[in-house]
């Protein structure tokens, strides 16, 4: 089984499409940030995602996972463009699984109008719908006989311009804990996916304004699974790290499209062994670079 994990494409769209009424508050600051440089850093996102689709086909990927931040301001026209751009990646044999990022829930109107659920509706089907306690979350997908993916949502609107933190609601975490004891998952390799990274590359928690505010709880719950990895994004750096307290392995895909820092993870699962290979952009093509191996007994430190 081969799984591709990418994150944070931040697909740009023309700012002229934004209605004046939407420019109030935080979006005005976000728009200024785009104009002053951020737009340039992600200007080629659509072309890079087209290259990623070619890479996915060449590598015969079975399942594609995205851990959010398709947009910059969480607006309708951005969602429309995001769906069009990533649609070729949704054709993998075992489908496509995703969660929203903090930019996708930039302000309360994106959540109130359920834009993510509307535009990504076809990706939000669960094989265990009875486990969904907070909209579509936790979303469980059973892949073949040996793998399960569980998606929990850490993103929320942050109206303060200086805040982009996230939190996984308590009811989702409680249900995730119940799933760790579910007989249908006990013998499967579990990938828990969410947007916010529970730990940075240096092994430390992110700050309270940017990070996952209940990271410790997520790590403890995930450690109850016999075999679980956490996949995330939000931090624009592609890395893996091990939580020394729980032994939990975390893989952050960084951003697939950030100029000069494009990254992804490719997982090959065979029996009890996982080979995780980092990917990068080389010119107009993605390629594989360094790899690590995981077993039931040992994680890389």
Report what the structure shows.
By secondary structure, the protein is α/β, with parallel strands linked by helices. It has a single domain (2-294), classed as Metallo-dependent phosphatases (Purple Acid Phosphatase, chain A, domain 2, 4-Layer Sandwich). It is 23% helix and 23% strand. The chain is built from seven helices and twelve strands. It has helices spanning 26-41, 45-58, 76-86, 108-112, 115-119, 170-179, 215-222; strands at residues 2-6, 63-66, 96-98, 139-143, 147-151, 189-193, 228-232, 238-242, 249-253, 263-270, 273-282, 285-294. The protein has a six-stranded mixed sheet. It has a six-stranded mixed sheet with strand order 4-5-6-7-9-8, with no helix packed on it. A hairpin with a 3-residue loop joins strand 4 (139-143) and strand 5. Helix 6 (170-179) runs parallel beside helix 7 (215-222). The longest helix is centred in the N-terminal third of the chain and has 16 residues, at 26-41. It is globular, with a radius of gyration of 18 Å. Residues 297-301 have low confidence and may be disordered.
């Amino acid at each position: 089984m081969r799984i591709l994990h990418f994150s944070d494409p931040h697909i740009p769209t023309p700012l002229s499409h934004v209605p004046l009424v939407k420019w109030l508050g935080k979006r005005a600051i976000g728009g200024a940030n785009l104009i002053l440089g951020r737009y340039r850093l992600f200007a080629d996102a659509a072309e890079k995602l087209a290259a990623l689709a070619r890479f996915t086909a060449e590598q015969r990927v079975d399942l594609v996972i995205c851990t959010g931040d398709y947009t910059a301001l969480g607006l309708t026209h951005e969602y429309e463009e995001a769906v069009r751009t990533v649609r070729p990646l949704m054709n993998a044999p075992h489908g496509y699984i995703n969660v929203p990022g903090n930019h996708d829930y930039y302000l309360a109107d994106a959540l109130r109008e359920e834009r993510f659920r509307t535009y990504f509706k076809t990706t939000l089907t669960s094989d265990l719908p009875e486990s969904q306690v907070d909209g579509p979350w936790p979303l469980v997908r059973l892949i073949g006989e040996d793998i399960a993916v569980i998606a929990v949502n850490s993103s929320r609107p942050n109206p303060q311009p200086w805040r982009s933190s996230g939190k996984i609601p308590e009811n989702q975490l409680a249900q995730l804990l119940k799933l760790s004891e579910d007989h249908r998952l006990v013998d499967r390799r579990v990938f828990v996916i969410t947007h916010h990274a529970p730990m940075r590359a240096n092994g430390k928690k992110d700050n309270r304004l940017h990070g996952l505010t209940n990271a410790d709880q997520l790590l403890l719950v995930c450690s109850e699974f016999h075999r679980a990895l956490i996949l995330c994004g939000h931090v624009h750096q592609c890395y893996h790290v091990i939580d020394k307290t729980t032994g939990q392995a975390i893989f952050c895909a960084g951003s697939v499209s950030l100029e000069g820092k494009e990254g992804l993870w490719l997982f090959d699962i065979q029996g009890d062994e996982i080979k995780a290979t980092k990917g990068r952009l080389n010119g107009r093509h993605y390629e594989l670079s360094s790899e690590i191996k995981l077993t039931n007994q040992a994680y890389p430190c």
